[in-house]
Specification:
heterodimer, A: mainly beta, seven-stranded mixed sheet, four-stranded antiparallel sheet, 11 strands, 0% helix, 49% strand, B: mainly beta, six-stranded mixed sheet, 53% strand
């Protein structure tokens, strides 16, 4: 099993450009998440999904959109990239559980730089 | 509101020393879950432990041990006889049952173990 994979691993954008980050998981997990990691701030939740076809906002959703058309994939889009979106992006998935309490499994991360 | 505080930004130790990482959490919920993750220099996040609010038993796994105290809202992590491979950023996270699997991460503690 590959677990959680992310594409691409690195990307450099110019301000105003758009891009999509792809997350895929092969564990049949219901829940999927997108986080950003910035120095000294831990991981902050951008958007999440509790099942195919559903999405919801996290702590820092502005400037991002997501889609979960298939259970195994969770896409994160930046419509008009800004330097403030320079960060490391992590995707995660979890089984969920009766109370959503299962641990999250993380992808390797995508390092995005916006010039 | 949920909050996780990891007050120690960085801890430096010499190999074989013990190191304790503090995690203090805030929540009004009576049912919640606490997690620890390790992020080595390679960048991936590795799940270490999950503990629910009704289980205050301490846990030991090899050189790792965790002390959960509801009275002080703390879930501290100790590495005994540290090794260079323990050098990493360690994150504490909180999840409450009404949050649909959303984690609130602390800012992380960087552990540096020198030979």
């Amino acid at each position: 099993n590959a677990g959680v994979t992310q594409t691409p691993k690195f990307r450099v954008l110019k301000t105003g450009q758009s891009m999509t980050l792809l997350c895929a998981q092969d564990m049949n997990h219901e829940y999927m998440y997108w986080y950003r990691q910035d120095p000294g701030m831990g991981l902050r939740l951008i958007h999440y999904s509790v099942g195919e076809g559903t999405t919801a906002k996290g702590e820092v959703p502005d400037g991002y959109n997501v889609s979960r058309l298939k259970k195994q994939n969770f896409l994160l889009g930046l419509e008009s990239a800004a330097p403030s979106q320079t960060s490391v992006y992590f995707c995660a998935s979890s089984y969920g559980g009766r109370e959503g309490q299962s641990e999250q499994f993380f992808g390797p991360g995508t390092r995005l730089t916006v010039l | 509101a949920q909050k996780v505080t990891q007050a120690q930004t960085e801890i430096s130790v010499v190999e074989k020393e013990d190191v304790t990482l503090d995690c203090v959490y805030e929540t009004r919920d009576t049912t919640y879950y606490l997690f620890w993750y390790k992020q080595p220099p390679s960048g991936e996040l590795v799940f270490l432990i999950r503990r629910n609010s009704f289980d205050e038993q301490n846990e030991i796994s090899g050189r790792y041990s965790w002390n959960f105290q509801k009275s002080t809202s703390s879930f501290n992590f100790t590495i005994t006889a540290s090794q260079v491979v323990d050098s990493a950023v360690y994150f504490c996270a909180l999840m409450t049952t009404d949050s649909w699997g959303k984690f609130q991460f602390g800012a992380g503690t960087q552990v540096v173990v020198t030979p």
